[in-house]
Amino acid sequence: MTDVGRVVPEDAGGAWEMVVGLEVHTELRTATKLFCGCANLFGDEPNTHVCPVCLGLPGSLPVLNQRAVELAMAIGTALHCEIRPSTFHRKNYFYPDMPKDYQISQYDEPINVSGWLQLPGGRRIGIERAHLEEDTGKTAHAGSSGRIQGAEYSLVDYNRSGVPLVEIVSAPDMRSSTEARAYATELRAILIACGASDGKMEEGSMRVDANVSVRPGPGAPFGTRCEIKNLNSLRSLGRAVDYEAQRQIALLESGDAVVQQTRHWDEGEGRTVALRSKEEAYDYRYFLEPDLVPVVPDPAWITAVGAALGPLPAERRARLVALLAGAVPAVGEGFPDPDVGVDAEGSPGVSDAEREQILTVVDLGLDGLVVAAVAGGVPARLALARTANEAATDAGAAASLDPGAYTTLLGMEVAGTLSATQVKAILSDLLAHGGGDPVELARARGFEAMADAALVTVVREAVDAHPAEWVRYRDGEEKLAQFFVGQVMKATRGQANGKGVVAELERLARE
Amino acid sequence: MTAAAIAAAVRSGERRAATVTEASLAAIAAGEGEIHAFALVLADGARRRAEEIDAQVAAGQDPGPLAGVPVALKDNLCTRGVPTTCCSRILEGWLPPYDATVVKRLAAAGAVVVGKSNMDEFAMGSSTETSAFGPTRNPRDTSRVPGGSSGGSAAAVAAGFTPVALGSDTGGSIRQPAALCGVVGMKPTYGTVSRYGLVAFASSLDQVGPLATTVADAALLFDVIGGRDERDTTSLDRPAPRLASVVGQGVEGMTIGVLAEYLEGADPAVAGRIAQAAEVLAAAGARVEEVSVPEVRLGLSAYYLIAPAEASSTLARYDGVRYGLRVDAEDTAAMNVATRSAGFGAEVKRRIMLGTYALSAGYVDAYYGQALRVRTRIIDGFAAAYERCDALLGPTAPTTAFALGAKLDDPLSMYLSDVCTIPTNLAGHPAISVPFGTGADGLPVGAQVLAPALAEATMFKVAAVLEAGAPAVGAGS
Ligand SMILES: [Zn+2]
Question: Is B461 marked active-site?
Answer without folding.
Answer: no
